[in-house]
Amino acid sequence: MRQLYFDYNATTPIAPAVQQAMLPFLAEQYGNPSSAHALGRAAHEAVEDAREYLSALLGCEPEEIVFTGGGTESNNLAFKGLAFHRGLTGGGHLVISAFEHPSVAGPARFLEQLGFDVTIVPVSGQGVVQPAAIETAIRSDTLLVSVMLANNEIGTLQPLKQIADICHSAGTLLHTDAAQAVGKIRVNVDELEIDLLTVAGHKMYAPKGMGALYIRQGTVLEPLLHGAGHEAGMRAGTENVAGIAALGAAASLAAKSLDASCERLETLRDRLQQALRTGVGNRLVIHGVSSPRLPNTLSVSFPGVLGHELLARIPELCASTGSACHSETDVISPTLAALGVTPAVARGTIRLSLGWYTSDDDVDGAASLLLHAWEALQR
After folding, report:
1. Where in the chain are all domains bearing CATH 3.90.1150.10?
2. Cut 0.90: pTM above it
3. Confidence of residue 89 (pLDDT cuts 50, 70, 90)
4. pLDDT exceeds cutoff 50 at 26
5. Cβ(184)–Cβ(39) under 8 Å?
6. What's the pLDDT at 326?
7. 337 with 287: CB under 8 angstroms?
8. Structural fold of domain 4-11+258-378
């Protein structure tokens, strides 16, 4: 059975060129980057080359990149690193949006237990955080505002430049979880005026367990891991050279094809959307359709069915009912709850996310399978 993969927002396959970039550091180039001999120097150069590739993609300086074990670690480092540096005894205030990923909401809740105040800002019914709501939420003791760049379930893009202006006018730092955006759309930290930005390798054709945190120069965090001072003292532990080389290669690939890939994926996404709309009619709910969205993401609700039952009838289609973190339950995801959709619409929702290897035939095949399964469930 040929699989049709429409779950790129959950994870991406490792690109062949990325895999090739890893292989030497899994075999003959096994040196420790901190060693002074030839094998160590080769490993060190690979790490720094990758830092340059990723910084070029983000429009920052290489020394502003800290490699981590993934997006979750990067988000935790942003929150806890800032809080620990400022000191826990005095507390402070944090602002997040209502549909942040659990790796942002979780650290915020943890710090709340330590005495910090957390304000959760609502989102509109079209999945957008309103800058005015951020302005209202900020207090004199607000340490950090965190708003994701692109929502992982419905793909809506957030007005981060306007939010950044508000934060900086109030003397507050802005963090964004850009795991779903980097490599899919243009992301420039200076244009957005971001202070902290999270990257997840497995969302951009690199391996799982590899990520990075952009830290604007002058932003001081306390490390989560203390030890021998790797990553400019921000993350102790011998570097995952193969994973870092892979992330660098993925960043280089993305930079070369970003505009063309964005245009192609948007065309495919719209083709899929139109096919489903034609088959179901106006009862098909398209989440965030009136807002700017990622070019690869389509979140739709089929009327009269449960999303997980619909997908269960199509074993050859790899898709999800929402975030991979919630795809196996009937519980309404935080994203859809934040949008204020009805329980019936939420439970009929599936997320279809496309990627570099999605073809026209894949789109047409997925649409046909979904419509046939929906019609069968209707009967």
Report:
1. 4-11+258-378
2. yes
3. low
4. yes
5. no
6. 47
7. no
8. Aspartate Aminotransferase, domain 1 (3.90.1150)
CATH fold for the domain made of 16-253: Aspartate Aminotransferase; domain 2 (3.40.640)
* Catalytic residue list contains 325: yes
DSSP string, 162-202: HHHHHHHHTT-EEEEE-TTTBTTB---HHHHT-SEEEEEGG
Render pLDDT for 271-314 as a digit per residue (tens, 0 to 9): 999 999 999 999 999 999 999 999 999 999 999 999 999 999 99
Sign (positive or negative) of CA dihedral 43, 47, 52, 56: positive
DSSP 26-56: GTT----TT--SHHHHHHHHHHHHHHHHHHH
Task: Report how far residue 223's alpha carbon sits from residue 205's, in angstroms, rounded to the nearest whole number.
Answer: 27
- Helix H or strand E segment including 360: helix 360-378
221: left (phi over 0), alpha (psi -120 to 50) or beta: beta
Q: Are 177 and 150 in contact (CB under 8 A)?
A: no
Identify which of 278, 265, 296 has the alpha carbon closest to the alpha carbon of residue 371.
Answer: 278
Of the residues 60, 167, 262, 325, only one is catalytic, namely 325
Q: Which residue do the tokens 């790796």 mark? A: 103
Distance CA(199)–CA(213), nearest Å, equals 6
> Identity (one letter) of the amino acid at 42?
A
Q: Is 331's pLDDT higher than 80?
A: no
